[in-house]
């Protein structure tokens, strides 16, 4: 069973992540594993990391934990091909710059999300979720 006391702690969370009031130990451990990454991780990525570290955690447990974190807004879910991948994001509106070559995600405050929320408010529309993603090649992959 996956638990925090058996997973190495990651760096501190980005400023202002949205965290549900109460996380299970499994969800806390997955959140710790996802924190500080430049690339989103799939359930299989996390499963392989845990297995190589000697943990015997089922894939279903990982999927459940990732789903609960995404539903709570603690992680952002990206679609990569036919799989979902996850990354910890700050709570404030921001955009994602996603490299199609290496998979690196840069979280930027380009203010497009804030502008669209203001436009929506002007016409009486309440935004409950936003997703702005730009795809291309990062500076490392363009070299």
Question: How would you describe this protein?
Answer:
This protein is of the alpha+beta class and 143 residues long. Helix 1 packs across helix 3 (59-72). Helix content is 34%, strand content 19%. The protein is built from five helices and six strands, in the order H-E-H-H-E-E-E-E-H-E-H. Strand 4 (95-99) and strand 5 form a beta hairpin. The chain folds into two domains: 4-88, Winged helix-like DNA-binding domain superfamily/Winged helix DNA-binding domain (Arc Repressor Mutant, subunit A, Orthogonal Bundle); 95-142, 2-Layer Sandwich (Dna Ligase, domain 1), CATH 3.30.1490. Mean pLDDT is 81; it is low at 1-16.
Structural class: alpha+beta
Number of domains: 2
Q: What topology, given as strand order, has the largest sheet?
A: 1-3-2
What is the distance, rounded to the nearest whole angstrom, between the alpha carbons of the first and last residues? 43 Å
Describe the largest sheet.
3 strands, antiparallel
Short synopsis of the structure:
The chain is α+β, with helices and mostly antiparallel strands and 143 residues long. Helices cover 34% and strands 19% of the residues.
């Amino acid at each position: 069973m996956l638990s925090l006391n058996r997973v190495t702690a990651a760096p501190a969370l980005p400023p202002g992540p949205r965290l549900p009031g109460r996380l299970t130990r499994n969800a806390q451990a997955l959140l710790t594993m996802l924190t500080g990454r430049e690339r989103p991780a799939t359930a299989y990525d996390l499963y392989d990391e845990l297995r190589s570290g000697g943990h015997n955690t089922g894939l279903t447990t990982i999927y459940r934990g990732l789903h609960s974190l995404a539903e709570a807004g603690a992680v952002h879910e990206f679609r990569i091909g036919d799989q979902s991948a996850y990354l910890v994001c700050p709570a404030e509106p921001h955009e994602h710059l996603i490299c199609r070559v290496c998979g690196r995600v840069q979280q930027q405050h380009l203010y497009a999300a804030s502008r669209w929320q203001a436009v929506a408010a002007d016409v009486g529309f309440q935004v409950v979720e936003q997703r702005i993603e730009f795809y291309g090649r990062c500076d490392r992959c363009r070299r």
